[in-house]
Amino acid sequence: xxxxxxxxxxxxxxxxxxxxxxxxxxxxxxxxxxxxxxxxxxxxxxxxxxxxxxxxxxxxxxxxxxxxxxxxxxxxxxxxxxxxxxxxxxxxxxxxxxxxxxxxxxxxxxxxxxxxxxxxxxxxxxxxxxxxxxxxxxxxxxxxxxxxxxxxxxxxxxxxxxxxxxxxxxxxxxxxxxxxxxxxxxxxxxxxxxxxxxxxxxxxxxxxxxxxxxxxxxxxxxxxxxxxxxxxxxxxxxxxxxxxxxxxxxxxxxxxxxxxxxxxxxxxxxxxxxxxxxxxxxxxxxxxxxxxxxx
Length: 295
Known about the structure:
By secondary structure, the chain is α/β, with parallel strands linked by helices. The protein has helices at residues 2-15, 20-34, 40-52, 58-86, 101-108, 123-133, 146-156, 168-179, 212-217, 254-269; strands at 94-98, 113-116, 136-140, 162-165, 183-186, 198-202, 205-209, 224-231, 238-244. It has 2 domains: 1-86, no CATH class; 92-273, no CATH class.
């Protein structure tokens, strides 16, 4: 076990010194070797895309599923390098930030800010960008692997983020953060446990949707900003897409608010469909739906 832990540490340290071109090239190789069309990750991606885009031919679904796996591996391998370099200079990764003034204006409202950072592009960079603008509290779920967990937690603190666990104490910390006019970061496409979210639709497919953003934002109409860090080809960095969730959100009930967030997420996904994490089992833990697409 000690030898395995040592190997893991060495691999993580080495990755933290490998630039984007190297990690992205390595990701393409790993996809070929370990993620064939018989792998579980490919199967999940294919099934998700098939039900979200039922009118698309097999060749299209197959291509997007496989390309999305490459992008997913890139997001994992590039993270140690992004974390290490971002501690001193995050701007080296950013080619352009679209609508950056949205963040500045939201901070000026002095209500705190909720950042939506979906599993799209480099969500690790998205979190760091948010934390570089305002003191940010982010919910995290500890990993079982202690070596990897320590490394990930340390990396996500690169721009000063305060990390809280995904439990009641963590939610209270987020409420306190907003009360103190800080930012908070939430993954809007994380699948809740059954009966802990509300049923909505994602690309016209029933999906269990988290209601935490609605609960935290509604009372004081806290600005909700989405961030998507789009990965550019050949290790050329990222374009950061920023947007504000429609003000209508605050007047909706939980179900309709979840629908609006999912529609917003759909729009983001369509900006670069291969960089969404289609290999995530998004359509689990659903109420009132008999079939399980992952059986």
